[in-house]
Amino acid sequence: MIALKLLFLLVPFFTSIMGEAQYITQDAALMNYIDRRFLSLERRLEKCNQDILDYVEEFRDFTKTIMSRLAGLSSYETELKSEVENLLTRVERAQRDIDYFGSHTDSNTCVEIDEDLVKQQLFEEAEENRKLKLMLNASCDYMLAGIKSLKIVKKTGEAHGSWMKDPGKKHAKIYLLSGSVNNVIAEFANILTFMESNHTQKARRVTLPLPWKGTGHTIYQGFLFYHRYGSLNEIIKYNIQKRNVTDQMLLPGAGRIPAYQLSPATKIDLAIDEQGLWAIHAEPDTGGNIVITKINHMTMAVENTWDTSCSSKDAEAAFMVCNILYVVYNVPSGGTSRIQCVYDVVGAVNTYEIPVLHFPKHQGSHSTIHYNPKEKQLFAWGDGYQIIYKLQATQKV
Questions:
Q1: For the segment 167-198, what is each residue's pLDDT rounded down to a tens digit?
Q2: Looking at residue 231, what is its pLDDT?
Q3: Is pLDDT above 70 for 6?
Q4: How far is residue 296's CA from residue 81's CA, in Å, rounded to a whole number?
Q5: What residue numbers bound the domain in which 340 lies?
Q6: Which of 205, 255, 267, 303 has the CB geometry, 3.0–4.6 Å to 233, for a possible disulfide?
Q7: At residue 64, what are phi and psi to the nearest 5 degrees?
């Protein structure tokens, strides 16, 4: 009887244990299933993150490509604009030439000449020449007769560069622009400070927002005028004291070939003389001959242009003195520099009768030569040396 009661008590107990074991087995299966799902989700998240990183990298590459192409399009736009302006200038010149040749071409047709019209045309030409001479101050009546001596001021070591004073200011500051591509001007209090051995510590550094190209820059009345690096023919006007760009212009026809064959980095050479700012450059349309452009330094507008007979072949530099262009020639290996082509923009000098002028004993080549009308001297850069040439002048004949 006791055994039977015990059996009745054990049956529910074992039934409960079996139920709990079944539940435990089911929980373990569920946990295993959940773990597998989490692992699957983690793998998918990792793949999603990797895909996102790949997409971001591809987007960065795409952005760089687009920005590069946009920069190229901007450059092409500037060049196209310059070419269009150059084309318009050439068309105007061609039209003037056509009109000129048309007016001078003989014709078999009997034409009655209006003497009053001819007199009017002659009067207008004379009046235009008179205004041109007034603009260029015809009282500037002297010309270069010789290069008297040289003084080697310093050697900085750079093969190419430019140094100068501001002829439009009363101060004695010296400006050094080293290299054919740079954006830092060194300003010295005077020439004695410049001549000291450690010039970097004595100089005030002026950093330009846009770098220059070549060595044909110049300083006039507190402004630096230079050819902007990366442009075909853009000239920048920069206020040195206020340190900002105040104006710019595009010089028609310039920038396609070097101004001088022996100074290939310089496409536009800016010069100062008694009459102000000039641009000297060469053009393929003139057979490589040098072109002179008079620029109003206040408005940055072209006032007049002259096609000269001076070739850029074997030329290394040029400068303006009293409305006259003097072109300096040399040999590719470097030798004695000489002036053997002269061009007077007002035609007051018979330039064909001017003898060849030789520079004093300096064997080598010039990177740049600038005329200072205030001191009547040439500031030159030759093979790393900063040189001053003193000049001899005579009356125009």
A1: 987 888 999 999 999 999 999 999 999 988 66
A2: 95
A3: no
A4: 22
A5: 139-395
A6: 255
A7: -60, -40
Same domain, 99 and 157: no
Per-residue pLDDT at 14: 61
- Tens digits of residue pLDDT in 40-54: 888 888 888 888 888
Say if residue 55 is in the same domain as residue 176.
Answer: no
DSSP string of 81-120, one letter each residue: HHHHHHHHHHHHHHHHHHHHHHHH---SS-----HHHHHH
Last residue of a domain, one of 56, 84, 103: 103
Within-domain flag for 124: no
| 3-state SS class at 330 | coil
Residue 113 falls within a domain, yes or no? no
Collapsing DSSP to helix, strand or coil, 349 comes out as: coil
pLDDT digits (tens, 9 = 90+) for 17-71: 666 666 677 777 778 888 788 888 888 888 888 888 888 888 888 888 888 777 7
CB 253 within 8 A of CB 89: yes
Task: Give yes or no: residues 212 and 277 share one domain.
Answer: yes
- Start-to-end C-alpha separation, the chain: 158
How many other CB atoms are found less than 10 A from the CB of residue 196?
12
* Local confidence band at 208 (pLDDT 50, 70, 90 cut-offs): very high
pLDDT the model gives residue 108: 41
Q: Does the structure show a pLDDT above 50 at 272?
A: yes
**Which of 103, 124, 159 is a domain's end point?**
103
- Lookup: tokens for 191: 């020439």
337: domain CATH number is 2.120.10
Whether residue 245 is found in the same domain as residue 347: yes
Asked which of 84-88, 298-302, 357-361 is least confident by mean pLDDT, the reply is: 84-88
Distance in angstroms (rounded) separating the CA atoms of residues 32 and 378: 93
Residue showing tokens 């310059």? 82
Q: Which residues 6+ apart lie within 8 Å of 58 measured at CB?
A: none
250 and 325 belong to one structural domain: yes
Is the pLDDT at 253 greater than 50, yes or no? yes
pLDDT of residue 156: 86
In a domain, 51, yes or no: yes
CB 255 within 8 A of CB 232: yes
Domain count, the chain: 2
Residues paired with residue 325 on neighbouring β-strands, in sequence order: 320, 343
Query: Is residue 225 one of the residues assigned to a domain?
Result: yes
